[in-house]
Amino acid sequence: MRDVRDVFELVTDQIIISDTLSVRLVRPVSEDEVVEHYVANEAFDADPYWATLWPSAFAVSRYIANAPALVRDKTVCDLGAGLGLAGLVACAAGAKRVELFDREPLALACAILSIEANGFQDRVLVKDFDWNDVREDQAKFDTLLACDVLYESHAVLPVAELVPKLVKRGGGRFLLGDPPSRAPQNRKRFKETLTEQYGAFVMRELLVQEGGDELVFIDFKM
After folding, report:
1. Nearest Cα residue to 1 out of 86, 102, 95
2. Is the pLDDT of residue 130 over 80?
């Protein structure tokens, strides 16, 4: 895996989630530089926006901080992790094992530095993951986290199909953070598919404020 420090200037932030929970996060100083790097390398099928710390990641992280039993002593997956904030928070809240899934190698390289900065090497690992090509022996998790994964319409069904492949039946949880106005039709279709076709049950659905932005948070039980 390429050393992301050779590509971007990085900064380490202390991200405060609650009065008792914070994590260190390593990220590129300039999000624009990341976009320019991808354009310059004609990586037009790649997603440079992993370098953005999206409000939905904060929303999911704060929910975990307020309900740590969702992750404590459990296996957790952060799907499309990007910088990996939600997964790192899950580890800080007591998760037994956390896996950060993303398809962008530079995002995973950055996440590895965050894992090291927090001393989480014994409980957190990264995985280059293509959600359109899931192995038959893919392990399932107690809790699945996803932030901003429904902004493209073609992602709705693949993500919905992926959830039961990654979440344990009979009590596994799927926590979704999504901006309400970006693609509400995608979220509606996703929710209908997950509940009607895959038997998920909505435990809680909230409209929350995060950094001046409104966000929808949904807690599904499988």
Report:
1. 102
2. yes
**Tens digit of each residue's pLDDT (9 = 90 or more) over 43-87:** 888 889 899 998 899 999 999 999 999 999 999 999 999 999 999
50, 56, 60, 61: CA torsion to nearest 10: 60
Whether pLDDT at 2 is above 80: no
Query: Would you state the structure tokens that stand for residue 46, as one six-digit string?
Result: 């790649």
Element (H, E) at 69: none
Q: Pseudo-torsion of CA 102, 106, 111, 113, nearest 10°?
A: 160
Residue 202's CB: how many other CB atoms inside 10 A? 12
DSSP string computed for 105-120: HHHHHHHHHHHHHHT-
Confidence at 211, pLDDT banded by 50, 70, 90: confident
| Residue 18 to residue 152: CA distance in whole angstroms | 31
CATH of domain 4-221: 3.40.50.150
Mean pLDDT of the chain: 93
Write down the pTM of the prediction. Answer: 0.94
Q: Hey, how many other C-beta atoms are within 10 angstroms of the C-beta on 53? A: 17
Give the Cα separation of 111 and 106 in Å (integer).
9
Domain boundaries, the chain: 4-221
Report how far residue 74's alpha carbon sits from residue 142's, in angstroms, rounded to the nearest whole number: 6
**Any idea how long the chain is?**
222
For residues 27 and 83, the answer to whether their CB atoms sit within 8 Å is yes
Q: Which of 178, 170, 179 is nearest to 201 (CA)?
A: 170
Question: How many CB atoms are closer than 10 A to CB 128?
Answer: 12
